Input
Amino acid sequence: MKHILFNELIGLFRNRLFMILLGVFSISLVLTTYFGIIHNNKQILSQNDAKEHIREQWDEMNHTNPHNAAHFGSYAFKPITILNSIDEGINGITGNVIRLEGHRQNDVMFSEASQSLLISNFGKLKPSLLLQFIIPLFLIFLAFNSYSSERESGRLKLLLIQGSSLNKIIFSKIIAIWSIGLTLLLITTFIQFIFTNSLFNIDILIRLILLFLSYSLYYLILISLTVFLSLLFKNSTSALSLTLVLWVMWVVFLPKIFGNTVEKINPLPTRVEFQNNMDNDRSKGIDGHNPSNERKDELIKSTLIQYGVNSLSDLPVNFRGILMQADEEYGNSVWDKHFGALYLQLTNQKNIYQFTGLINPFASLQSLSMATAGSDMFHHLNFLSQAEYYRRDLIELLNNKWRDGDWDENFYKSIKDFHYNSPSFLSFFWKYILDFVFLFLWSIILVVLLKYLTKKTSIV
Amino acid sequence: MIKLDKVDKSFDSYKALNKLSLNVNSGEIYGLLGANGAGKSTTLNLILGFLKPDSGFIKINDVNIINTDIIGYIPENVNLYPYLSGIENLDYFCKLSGFNYDNNELSSFLNECGLQEDAHNKLISNYSKGMRQKVGIAIAYSKKAKVYLLDEPASGLDPLSSNELSDLLKKLAANGSAILMASHDLFRVRETCNKIGILKNGNLIKEMDAKEITSEELEKVYLNFMKN
Output
């Protein structure tokens, strides 16, 4: 087998066109990875500058009381992950800054896509774009006639008579072409490692390894499928046509079809509907029988009982602080109801979409590529949750201070900025098991089918 | 060494071979003549194990199972790897058979098969059909096979090279190999083979000893069978 493999590689490396294309793709990957890292670093620096600027404003702001400070608010910045330079996933669309303030929960803003002149279905030129769309095409073109060229030239009989087997020939060819895909993947991961290794920790390393593994499996699937079809049809043109049709289905049509179907199964409310429902609950009460005025009266009663006084003016604390915190907590429950349902819908959509990997391994690859880069929906929802819990703690702290009335400049300075604890990939691993399972399943099924077909294929 | 006994082979409704029986003994060169579609290639493919007979049996070296270790095969068109030189192609195919020859040994095989020394290191893409054919012969020869199966081996060879091929085959036969050669080339078959068989529509209609017939007589017999 090693002789066939070695011969295949010699054939590729002595082919001028192949070498030119390999060179072009290698250089493209080096450049896109490098520029992706530079762009990432710039974004990180910009975020750090913005954070410092906001902190300075916070520290210098002469807050008259904590309630004003709650209105002044703060910002939560979604950290740019190191591997965002390979696959920025949904980050370019969702944005990475959220304003945190009292009384209201805001949306994420400042998405790069909204500020870009270059709007494209394929997004920015990142290594993921090349690795998911361009390199697979290159591998298909290398693989589609690997069997038929041997058969049509008559070399196949000679190879078999010289003691080789069809099984060895087919798998040597697959491994040879796969090694080209792996080399291009290695170039990307190597460049990423060289320029960002000072920021690496065990989690980033695990993510990078799993990203490599995901793409490796996808390339194996694609090459095996191409060779499988070439064995099945024995005609290189038919095999190439069918492989390309399948590939276009995988990357263009099926994601759209399944995406739309999943949205139909688990529809999300429109922005207007969502806001109206939120406002409605805010004013009428969660269950529609608890209007805000009644809530206020009940709070006054319970506070007077708690402090053992007859009127608000006799309270030893500032009732407005208590009222604001109560209102905040009610607002939180409204948020939990609506955003909780929304997040659940988004999670359900994502979970259902993951099942499409059974038919479309490209869906599993995309999911894992974004997941390992920390730029998918699950990571985004995790950021939103952490930002919201920080906002609640911050506003509660400010309201309590307003209630107790003992704040000073040092109190404001002691308030810590939002810090996002990036989840480790292993803590999220269970969310992506399906994606891994489907990629492994596709690989195993194709290898088994190829083994079966090599036994059944007639040489003549 | 090669024994076919009442071998039948059909492709759908088309009967390619009809109770074909033939023997090629050690030291013998058997020339199988026939028009296109007579069943020559089917016969070779059956012996090579690429096809299975519907009935009858095939034995090589008295064994039913096809053992490619002892078979050398030369196709009509030897298409080798164009990005390898002649000697690299030979080396590659030898290694597949488990033979690891050094460059001198590989060169001597090519020389013995009539390929000029200065061509050994040139890329196959620069070879003529005849030169490729010689490398193909060297591949089979270097395997030190006991059985040789040749499908139009002289196709594309110039008269001198054809003559060299005949000499090489005679040498192999003299060393105890059994050779079955399918061909249209009456003259080459008559010059090279000990035994000649004529196939028509899957039937072996005539077998003769090459020594007992001249080229002209062979042509007459052949044409006579083909016309009737």
